[in-house]
Amino acid sequence: xxxxxxxxxxxxxxxxxxxxxxxxxxxxxxxxxxxxxxxxxxxxxxxxxxxxxxxxxxxxxxxxxxxxxxxxxxxxxxxxxxxxxxxxxxxxxxxxxxxxxxxxxxxxxxxxxxxxxxxxxxxxxxxxxxxxxxxxxxxxxxxxxxxxxxxxxxxxxxxxxxxxxxxxxxxxxxxxxxxxxxxxxxxxxxxxxxxxxxxxxxxxxxxxxxxxxxxxxxxxxxxxxxxxxxxxxxxxxxxxxxxxxxxxxxxxxxxxxxxxxxxxxxxxxxxxxxxxxxxxxxxxxxxxxxxxxxxxxxxxxxxxxxxxxxxxxxxxxxxxxxxxxxxxxxxxxxxxxxxxxxxxxxxxxxxxxxxxxxxxxxxxxxxxxxxxxxxxxxxxxxxxxxxxxxxxxxxxxxxxxxxxxxxxxxxxxxxxxxxxxxxxxxxxxxxxxxxxxxxxxxxxxxxxxxxxxx
Amino acid sequence: xxxxxxxxxxxxxxxxxxxxxxxxxxxxxxxxxxxxxxxxxxxxxxxxxxxxxxxxxxxxxxxxxxxxxxxxxxxxxxxxxxxxxxxxxxxxxxxxxxxxxxxxxxxxxxxxxxxxxxxxxxxxxxxxxxxxxxxxxxxxxxxxxxxxxxxxxxxxxxxxxxxxxxxxxxxxxxxxxxxxxxxxxxxxxxxxxxxxxxxxxxxxxxxxxxxxxxxxxxxxxxxxxxxxxxxxxxxxxxxxxxxxxxxxxxxxxxxxxxxxxxxxxxxxxxxxxxxxxxxxxxxxxxxxxxxxxxxxxxxxxxxxxxxxxxxxxxxxxxxxxxxxxxxxxxxxxxxxxxxxxxxxxxxxxxxxxxxxxxxxxxxxxxxxxxxxxxxxxxxxxxxxxxxxxxxxxxxxxxxxxxxxxxxxxxxxxxxxxxxxxxxxxxxxxxxxxxxxxxx
Lengths: 454, 439
Hints:
The structure holds 2 protein chains of 2 kinds. Chain A contains 9 helices and 25 strands. Chain A has helices at residues 2-9, 68-84, 115-130, 200-212, 230-240, 254-259, 313-319, 352-359, 406-409; strands spanning 16-32, 35-53, 56-62, 99-102, 135-153, 158-176, 179-189, 217-218, 222-228, 273-275, 298-302, 305-306, 327-328, 337-338, 343-345, 362-374, 377-389, 392-398, 400-405, 413-416, 421-422, 428-429, 433-434, 439-441, 444-452. In chain A, strands 1, 2, 3, 4, 5, 6 and 7 form a 7-stranded mixed β-sheet that branches. In chain A, strands 12-11-10-15-24-21 form a 6-stranded mixed β-sheet. In chain A, α3 runs parallel beside α4. By secondary structure, chain B is an alpha+beta fold. Chain B has helices at 2-9, 66-76, 108-123, 188-200, 222-232, 234-238, 299-304, 344-349, 401-404; strands at residues 14-30, 33-51, 54-60, 81-82, 131-146, 151-166, 173-180, 204-205, 210-216, 259-261, 284-288, 291-292, 313-314, 329-330, 335-337, 353-357, 360-361, 372-377, 380-384, 387-392, 396-400, 408-411, 427-435. In chain B, the strands form 4 sheets. In chain B, strands 8, 9, 16, 17, 18, 19, 20, 21, 22 and 23 form a 10-stranded mixed β-sheet that branches. A 7-stranded antiparallel β-sheet of chain B has the order 4-3-2-1-5-6-7. Chain B is globular, with a radius of gyration of 23 Å. The chains are: A alpha+beta, B alpha+beta. At the A-B interface, β1, β2, β3, α2 and α3 of A face β1, β2, β3, α2 and β4 of B.
């Protein structure tokens, strides 16, 4: 395949060209309540080409091999229009030419597990939740995505990397007297099928939590000091800071670039944030990004000081910073963009009990319910929480969403715990979905957060 | 497609082939300079078969091996997903002229010129902050053939874009969007009004937490319609988890609110003569003057709930994804609000003190099925004595969609954005919880 890809871009009249071909096999099993709604496995494929000519940079994605020449022609035409119109001049930062093959390393290959066994596993977890007395229904979905990626560029790189992610996600919905409450469920990763086995306790516990929410009170809106659970710290870090560490979001705004210049003190002394997709066995693992650059760990913030940024070859050249290997596409339908991969707050030294004591009065918020970023503003939801009074956990609360601003909130992190947890499932939609966006951190204490409440 | 259908029917009792082909080109400009251009040429096939009352599904992008696709669908039968419905046969379909051939000629050069025209117009208004402009043009064609003799197809075209006006020194701002079936200019008057709104909302203001009037603009209404749609979905009725269960005929919202699905509305792009299961589309009233009328369904839930199909079975999700990979699910894709009788300025004048929600963050985070929402203003504008005073710093709006829509003060008498994708009106609500940094 790499030889064929080389031949497809061999005669492109450009300063640089690359091509990615990808085969994607997706297996899905979904339950809605007791109903098995969907079972299937399907394969898709497609090509992505990019060209750089006289500073004009353009892309095309095509399904069929026969459309690749047309895609290249349109991309070249677009690159010429960018140059002719005085558009943005693009350079690509130097990257070593790489020839490599990266096979999967799995603890249990789900492709070798029969569909019947997979259905049986999902059904067993689903039934465990439905057996709970106040669980009205569930939505539970098994999803396995295998990607076989081939990348070739005109500078000599030729890489084949396989990626596989499998997981179970969904929700348990509890109901009493017309009130509905839900709790999300997520297990999975990039390291194989065995991670999904023997998780009965977790599913029962999530169902119990959904039932407990029927007795919880809606949080009262206002300003609070809060402790975030490790996974909620991850959502907060991803939304409040992570997106702004993606260079493509700041490169064109001069005033923001100044505010976000390396060395700027943006957080409190307690905040160290790392992006590291290199450890094997965690959800966000990959070796090469979708422009053939090997990913490396990046310390984004150290003791509150901005230390690094995540780049594509284009943004690294534009900002004069080193490449990091963070230019990633959802699949063969998309040109790659800068994505954060695995991001987490480094643990501190305080125990959870220390943090509760330091908090005194406030809220303890647990587990992420999605977040969103727009510019420097962000929100993130918590699945549930507890009122804390005098350092003691009190009544359970629900309907919790938090809003903040990048430039004020990071300075409000008062302490970080000594525990670290990474998420098992991802799902960041920045124009295209990234199912490998792992996140996490320790418990953290943050002051002065705006919490929306009914 | 016919060949694939025939192969499928060699092993199945019923079969359906869905084909989607799409082409698009897009350009983005920042501060007047063309930054990126991209082209996409995509296609895909989805196969559904029914054998002995069980459903099998498979999809692919390149139809290189028809037998493999049938084998994949046969393999999925092992899951024993029940399918008690029958694929629809030929029916009388609306004749909708949704394709304009001029989109096929839009290349990078024309796209750049049209985008630059928007930039030049905004430059002429001396906007204080940075400006981003994105434009795109595309077309798609859908064809569905099935074992009941259905063979329908529809082509559609679309040209559209948006100008984002960034507040000085930030990446946040407000935008003005437009969508047409063929290459055309934006509504310049609307764009000019959005620049005026932008100017009025550059100052940041701090307001106290409390309950007040809140005006939802069309770009933020999805937080409410998402929750109503989840409740009215046939899926929620089948699982008996809908807050609307047993409420058909009851007034559950203000009588000022009527919501319907109109796939034949040609004033916007995306009109459809049939849904993604080949059912002939029609207007469906879901809430009429606040009274809940009916759930909406796909073929599967129509059968389960023993009701007639509502032609609202569509493939896809809010998060993008591969269309052919999704199975048809109930969807109010063509949701509309009936217009009221108040102008936008009149509605502002009704606000002694309140917030205008232009955009929001976190609509997906709440307890959607129960109708709860707690969303960040992005941006939201503070109004006092009918006058916009500035944009709210760190504000949130929260409540329950069903309860919020019982306190409707006014519905706009037409679309806020005459060129917008939804043509929704603004809706003014009373007594809504707003949380900020100030107590």
